[in-house]
Amino acid sequence: MAATTVPEKTSRRHPGRRPAGPRSTAAGSGMSRRLRGNIQAYGFLVGALLCFGFFSWYPMVREFVMSFQRTRRGVTTWVGLRNFKTVYHDPYFWTAWRNTALFTLYALVIGFAVPFLVAILLNELRHARAYLRVLVYLPVMLPPVAGALLFKYFYDPEYGLFNHILKAVHLPTSQWLDSPHTALISVVIAATWMSMGSATLIYLAALQNIPGELYEAADLDGAGLLRKIWHVTVPQTRLVLSLMLLLQVVATMQEFTNVFLMAGGNGPQNSTTTVVYMIYQYGYHYDNFNGAAVLGLFLMLVLICFSGLYTRLSRNSD
Amino acid sequence: MAEFTPQTRTLISSAALSRGRGKVVYWTVLSVVLVVFTLVFIGPLYWMATSGFKDVHEVVHNPPTLFPHHAHPANYKTAWTQLQLAKLLWNTVYYAFGALFFQLVFDVAAAYALSKLRPVLGNIVLGAMLITLMIPAAVLVVPQYMTVLDLPLLHVNLINHPWAIWLPTVANGFNIFLLKRFFDSIPEDLMAAAAIDGAGPLRTLWSVVLPMSRPILGVVSIFAVVNVWKDFLWPMLVEPDPTKQPINIGIQSLSQGVPENVLIAALAISAVPTLLIFLLFQRNIMSGLTAGSLKG
What we know:
The complex is a heterodimer. Chain A is mainly alpha-helical. Chain A is 71% helix and 3% strand. Chain A has a two-stranded antiparallel sheet with strand order 1-2. Chain A starts with a helix and ends with a helix. Mean pLDDT of chain A is 86; it is low at 1-27. The model of chain B is unreliable at 1-6 (pLDDT under 50). At the A-B interface, helix 1, helix 3, helix 5, helix 6 and helix 7 of A face helix 2, helix 5, helix 6, helix 7 and helix 8 of B.
């Protein structure tokens, strides 16, 4: 049904360009035919090219240029590295990086390990598979606002569900989002609940592709459960695992939505201020787009270094 | 491909599970998993749906109640009218399907051109599109926002206009990549046959390529819709007018000063459409998920 929209729109965009068939191959030199083919091809490309140009390529260049400029009352001047200095001397600069790094670390410990273990567990079960798969994926489909505000209620130290459960089983309660020590990790737990479904399903598919003979061979060698996981499951899914690791780091380093919705961005004593939240503050609270661009540039640099290093390492280990 | 065949040999052999002790352990683990997973993944949704029926005191009551003492369906009605959920939902649908439309038209056309028409510099264009995958989205928020404030060359301000949400979604290197790879797998012979029959590129795209590409178009479509539905930072920046906000932003900005039970009812309503989409297209979403990420 969705496909029907395509040609209607496209044909309106290219009136009278249709009959290019055999007639045109007979007429004209190879040169003009090729030119014609190219024009046609770029006709198909023009929409995407414009969108990429306006919303991707141009902003990339602009981010770089902006970080060396300052705009005040509509007048733009070149200021060299002054924006870099301002941002670097911001008292929360290192706090934001620390929080972002911590968030990523927690997300790796919790958000990376849990889906893999869940996938292994689900893969061993012979019953209710479809039901369990749907269950795990359900939260992924919640709008972020619903998931985040829901957890905000659960985390409430006074009447929240979590402290109630902890009390019921005689465990110490927590201040969750209200304490600078636990705010960040509380956000990570909620974020993991909301997004683990996609990773779990990807791991499940990867587990399905492991040849059963490998496990049989391991059995014959007398390998226990943990040894089989370590020597068969992990190496066999290494490619997917490492790809997901990279995606996970890149995604969690850009955390904004959950800290914004659950912890109001900064959290208690700036304990959840992430770099992207700081970008947002610079741009929309301090009215300093140039500072925001500098921060964005830093983040981009870190992430590109990380992916570069990562690709290099994974290539060497092959 | 993600279908599960019970015969597949996994960590623990089926034989071990069907013997005495294995059987007991298996059924215990299975029931624990079923109970725990249901509590963990449906529990919060249950809490949300039922708390929407509670009165203001019961919502914050300690200990929490499992069933509302007195059901107040009026909360849902209040949420619907007071938070203008109809408007917010409509906005979201409008943004999501607009984005879907533009992605299908522009990205399919571009991928087709790059895969089958192969223009000069086509590889460079493709490379430039794929490079954008390296640049994290959040990094470019500020320059993108400034572009939307004053579109270069045309000098139009797209703030509060749906274009600000629709057009940037087209610049999706991953879509182009997925589509191009799929189109690449369509045999050249078919294209040649269409050309001999006198079909131009547009005709070939429409009658040969698209009918064969239903699965990939389904994947791209579902993700286009879901991505817009889940986006937060970008729509918050470019749609500051409360009457034009999608549901995520609208509920967040209207949530101050709304009684908690009404807000929870609003959250429950906001969750219904995507959960429905999921339950309806479950199979496609799951296969698309694995197809998209494994081969990406």
